[in-house]
Amino acid sequence: MFFHPMDILVFAAFGLSLWAQFKVKGNFNKWSQVEASSHKTGAEVARQILDQNGLYQVRVEAVRGTLTDHYDPMSRVVRLSEPVYHSHSIAAVSVAAHEVGHAIQHQKSYGALVLRHKMFPIVNLTSGIAPFLLIGGLFLGQLNLIGLGIILFSFAVAFQLITLPVEFNASSRAKKLMVSEGIITNNEEHGVNKVLGAAALTYVAGALMALFELLKFVMIFLQGDED
């Protein structure tokens, strides 16, 4: 009943997201079988890069799960999943270095990261309200609800778009640091690119899906306004 031509693009982005997640797991599993020439674990790599950048106060901790790695800016902790924390593989050192890249961004007040942190409380609130306004506006035929939902949803879309340079920059920093620190050789960069490139694609797909969804509701709103 509410099918819209923009749904095709939304579904395409959703398909890209599923494919990207498949690639992330596939590349991570593949390069988890290849040991890095430095023979360092993900935890050792994280600690080495942190110390080399004066981030002695940032802790490195192991967390349960797979691909649950992240940097916590509030606690100043790099949390690595157990397969990354304990492994010597190309995949493990790549993911560990990427998360440290976020810690370095935090240290240097990287613009996109600072903006992302400031937006988080707002997005956390608006993203929970927007779907109800949009769906309610469609069912009730209330353009004012749809319009308000679009405004609130746009914060979530902006958040996802700002996440892209944050993630790409963290990966770029990670690759440069791993080479300069002797953690990987030039021959191993191919594996690092495969692991981090697939992960970046998931963020691109998520951003596209959110953007196309927003554009769909904007078009519905404009068409309803004309009627």
Automatic annotation (TrEMBL):
<feature type="transmembrane region" description="Helical">
    <location>
        <begin position="122"/>
        <end position="140"/>
    </location>
</feature>
<feature type="transmembrane region" description="Helical">
    <location>
        <begin position="146"/>
        <end position="168"/>
    </location>
</feature>
<dbReference type="InterPro" id="IPR007395">
    <property type="entry name" value="Zn_peptidase_2"/>
</dbReference>
<keyword id="KW-1133">Transmembrane helix</keyword>
<keyword id="KW-0812">Transmembrane</keyword>
<feature type="transmembrane region" description="Helical">
    <location>
        <begin position="200"/>
        <end position="222"/>
    </location>
</feature>
<dbReference type="Pfam" id="PF04298">
    <property type="entry name" value="Zn_peptidase_2"/>
</dbReference>
<keyword id="KW-0472">Membrane</keyword>
<protein>
    <submittedName>
        <fullName>Peptidase</fullName>
    </submittedName>
</protein>
